[in-house]
Amino acid sequence: MEFTGVKEKTLVIIKPDAIQRGLLGQVTARFEQKGLKLVATKMAYLKQETLREHYAHIAEKPFYPAVEKFMMSSPAVIQCWEGLDVVNTVRLITGITKAREAEAGSIRGDFAMSVACNVIHASDSIENAQAEVARFFEASEIHEYDKSDYQHVYAEEERTK
Ligand code: ADP
After folding, report:
1. Among the residues of 5-125, which ranges form H helices?
2. Domain range enclosing 72
3. What digits encode the pLDDT tens for the residues 95-116?
């Protein structure tokens, strides 16, 4: 799977709080209106063992059991977005972890108040994005297609990267 140029991919999880609060459409719209390409999406209950892998970097923190419980409290929507520098772009649109201090205009800045219930997960590096996309999606679930607006979303030299 290609992870370079306009084919760079990142993983987004729209968390249970967002699903419960009816924010799926608005959060997804932020990425669509930015010009990103949705290449995979599904709804699922996240499994404990998957979360342990996904959140290995916080697994020893005292708050981890609560994070796990929250992430399994109802289904989440998992998405893979594609675009030039998409990992960085999606992190900027997401905003910082502590949502009540996240920049206005970011998803967390506009939709959340909590550190834990902060609406969305987004991969934080190209390396992690590759691992996370492979963790949550089979290759057959990721769809390659031409997006007709690309000639207006990108300049020609960006499109051919
Ligand atoms: P981010 O999701 O912004 O990349 P981290 O990887 O540090 O942040 O943390 C993963 C998730 O764990 C956060 O999105 C949040 O849901 C939860 N979390 C992080 N720090 C805390 C904390 N201090 N208290 C409660 N939950 C936390």
Report:
1. 16-20, 24-34, 48-54, 64-71, 86-94, 107-111
2. 8-159
3. 999 999 999 999 999 999 999 9
